[in-house]
Design a protein that fits this description.
This is PAS fold protein. This protein is 32% helix and 32% strand. The protein has 538 residues and is of the alpha+beta class. It folds into four domains: 3-105, 2-Layer Sandwich (Beta-Lactamase), CATH 3.30.450; 114-223, Beta-Lactamase (2-Layer Sandwich), CATH 3.30.450; 242-385, Beta-Lactamase; 407-537, PAS domain (Beta-Lactamase), CATH 3.30.450. Strand 6 (114-119) and strand 7 (124-130) form a beta hairpin. Helix 5 runs antiparallel to helix 6 and helix 17 runs antiparallel to helix 18.
């Protein structure tokens, strides 16, 4: 897998922060765009705990020891709440011992009123977040079971919900339920508030390495009284960056003069030139000012081109400018245009700092005549951003080796056409799938040939096109499932099964925020789970 493939994967996981720190002193060597978004002051060479305000209480590095990887679950307000943190060993630039750290918000990123880290064995808790409506009457380290029982005794829980709530919070019941491998326990109940009772939900999420020896979990409480989210607005892209050729074509064909003044085009373009091909005359209109006669320049188009080439266009771009924008080329292109055509010419201006301009040339046939309009805009900022993205891709190349260890199979999936494209996969999977390109069929074939029979139904319930279409949204960007694979040795015991986590991540959305494309990744979890089991046996 090359750097561009990983660039696409990282872009398809816009909520995941990735950064690299030196093993010796935990100084930062690299950070991706998401980390910079949540922490604008981050800089290379700064120490990790200084950037995150000293929030190291649940850092996976505390438990990594000599292992290749360590994981933890924590709370980070900058990333939106409950997060999974993974630390993986690597050699930065092939020489420096380092850790790749990924921080990923948990599925269903909600606004929680309370977040506690609870030790169920010791019956104690640490406060991660509480709102002003505090029901915790004890200090950190106090018995969590007593705090929860006080809610019932004080009448804070609706009488019709007391039995369900009491059974849910019973310590032995919680411990036993989590030891069965459940990844989430939930209880919905009504709680007394200032304006009466409101529906709340308590969620209990076990630590990644939850065992009888380490009974740590995160308790989350949120107000769900106003669900579903009627006030949530769908995400909208900036319309100025989404103007397409159809809009321009409709405006041009309908009314050339109203097109000149269309506010949406004025907001994007700064100059418009209308070229009369028969006479070679050109009307240049400054769109940054109100439409008045003095803002329109009329002259010979060839003269404008010659003047620009001589005095304004960067020498390295003159040939491209001449090929695309000369009067001769405009006439040849217009003759070949049947209904509609367009071209773009991007070039630099002379001088420093570098300034980039784009001319968008639009050809419209109206009967025997063809109108030609040139729409000009400054794209310097866009070009600078492209340069930064290229630099970022070079930086990311250093962590490709580490990231590749996280995913042994990666696919891009087109939900509309039910097809997939391989980025990387194990050779034996490729041997079974063969030339199959239908996603639904491939998932079934994979389940039948590689997934343990007891986990097959669970896998297919999560990993299917209809489930993705139903559940993946910008506010719920991925779904995941863990399963065991069929061992190569038919006589292998349970301890020899490979355990895998498969994740389908929303990559693109279409109309109505429905998912359009998905990135599917599979990760080997055997090492971490085996170590947890070994710790439990010890």
């Amino acid at each position: 897998m090359n750097s561009r493939d990983y660039e696409k994967i990282l872009n398809a996981m816009p909520e995941t922060g990735v950064y690299v720190i030196q093993e010796e002193d935990h100084s930062i060597l690299y950070f991706n765009k998401r980390v910079q978004q949540v922490c604008p002051d981050i800089q290379r060479s700064r120490v990790c705990h200084e950037v995150w305000g000293g929030s190291c209480k649940n850092c996976p590095l505390l438990t990594i020891k000599s292992r290749q990887e360590s994981r933890s679950i924590s709370y980070n307000a900058l990333f939106g709440g409950v997060v999974d943190i993974i630390a993986t060993r690597t050699l930065w630039e092939d020489t420096i011992p380092a850790f790749v750290i990924t921080v990923t918000p948990r599925i269903g990123s909600y606004t929680y009123r309370k977040l506690l880290r609870v030790d169920l064995e010791e019956d104690t808790y640490d406060v991660l977040k509480v709102d002003s409506d505090i029901w915790l009457t004890g200090k950190e380290g106090a018995h969590i079971s007593a705090q929860l029982e006080n809610l019932v005794k004080n009448g804070a829980i609706h009488s019709e919900d007391v039995v369900r709530f009491t059974e849910f919070i019973e310590p032995n019941a919680l411990r036993n339920a989590l030891l069965t491998g459940k990844k989430l326990l939930t209880c919905i109940y009504r709680r007394r508030c200032a304006d009466g009772f409101r529906w709340h939900m308590m969620e209990i999420i076990p630590a990644f390495d939850y065992t009888s020896e380490n009974q740590t979990a995160i308790f989350c409480v949120r107000d769900v009284h106003d669900m579903p989210w009627s006030g949530v607005e769908s995400s909208r892209s900036n319309i100025l960056n989404g103007i397409d050729s159809d809009i321009i074509r409709r405006e041009l064909i309908s009314d050339n003069h109203s097109f000149q003044m269309a506010p949406i085009l004025k907001a994007r373009y700064s100059m418009m030139s209308m070229v009369h091909l028969d006479s070679g005359q050109c009307e240049r209109l400054d769109l940054t000012h109100a439409p008045q006669i003095q803002n329109t320049l009329v002259g010979d188009y060839d003269h404008y081109v010659a003047l620009a080439l001589a005095d304004y266009i960067h020498p390295e771009d003159t040939d491209h400018y001449r090929r695309t924008l000369s009067l001769q080329h405009l006439r040849e292109k217009a003759t070949a245009t049947k209904e509609y055509a367009e071209e773009r010419c991007q070039y630099r201006m002379k001088g420093t700092p570098v300034r980039w301009i784009e001319q968008h040339v639009v050809y419209i046939r109206q009967g025997e005549a063809v109108t030609v309009n040139l729409l000009g805009q400054d794209i310097t900022e866009k070009k600078q951003q492209e340069a930064l993205r290229l630099q970022a891709m070079q930086d990311r190349a250093y962590i490709i080796g580490s990231l590749s260890s996280l995913f042994f199979s990666t696919y891009y999936i087109d939900l509309e056409h039910d097809t997939f494209r391989v980025v990387s996969q194990l050779s034996k999977i490729g041997d079974i799938l063969g030339d199959e390109v239908n996603c639904t069929a491939a998932l079934q074939v994979y389940a039948n040939n590689f997934i343990h029979s007891e986990d097959r139904e669970k896998y297919l319930q999560v990993m299917n096109i209809q489930n993705w279409l139903k559940h993946l949204r910008w506010w719920n960007p991925y779904v995941t499932v863990e399963y065991r694979t069929i061992p190569d040795n038919p006589g292998a015991g349970p301890e020899e099964y490979m355990r895998v986590r498969a994740t389908a991540v929303l990559a693109q959305t279409g109309a109505g925020d429905l998912p359009k494309t998905v990135v599917y990744v599979a990760q080997n979890m055997t090492e971490s789970q085996t170590q947890s089991a070994g710790k439990d046996a010890g």
